[in-house]
Design a protein that fits this description.
This protein is an alpha+beta fold. It has three helices and five strands, in the order αβββαββα. The protein has a five-stranded antiparallel beta sheet. A hairpin with a 2-residue loop joins strand 1 and strand 2 (about 40-45).
Length: about 140
């Protein structure tokens, strides 16, 4: 089974289980799913055989706040506070993203639910942390 077809199958099963319509992957292998007001980007990459998961955790003028940038950099240390994800700044969009990747060949519904649940929880926590950092 190819990367795209396995991911589509798992995402489709996940969507059915939570009672939403399965998202459509575009020609680049990208789709979006919203969970608890957190917009998640899923990208199935045939190039390097990875599933990339990302979410915006900070955007706008707050991104350039020194306390926000320090908090994001400190959070990346050993990936403990980010549960294995990485916080990164994208200059083109002026946003800080939380990013994670997984091997899609071994991905099944249970592992996807676990990964996505942890990712959403952590992304929401980091959105709050970075908002708090703007107040420092």
């Amino acid at each position: 089974m190819g990367v795209h077809s396995n991911i589509k199958e798992v995402v489709g099963s996940f969507s059915s289980e939570i009672g939403v319509e399965a998202p459509n992957f575009n020609d680049n292998g990208i789709c979006y799913i919203t969970i608890d007001d957190c917009v998640i980007t899923l990208e199935a990459s045939e190039l390097d055989n990875k599933l990339y998961i990302s979410a915006v955790v900070c955007e706008g003028d707050s991104v350039h706040n020194e306390s926000v940038l320090k908090a994001a950099l400190a959070g990346n240390m050993f990936w403990i506070e980010t549960k294995g994800a990485t916080l990164m700044y994208d200059e083109a969009t002026n946003r800080i993203f939380m990013c994670y990747n997984e091997n899609p060949e071994t991905l099944d519904l249970e592992s996807f639910k676990n990964i996505l649940g942890n990712f959403v929880e952590c992304a929401k926590e980091w959105t709050e942390k970075l908002q708090e950092a703007t107040k420092v």
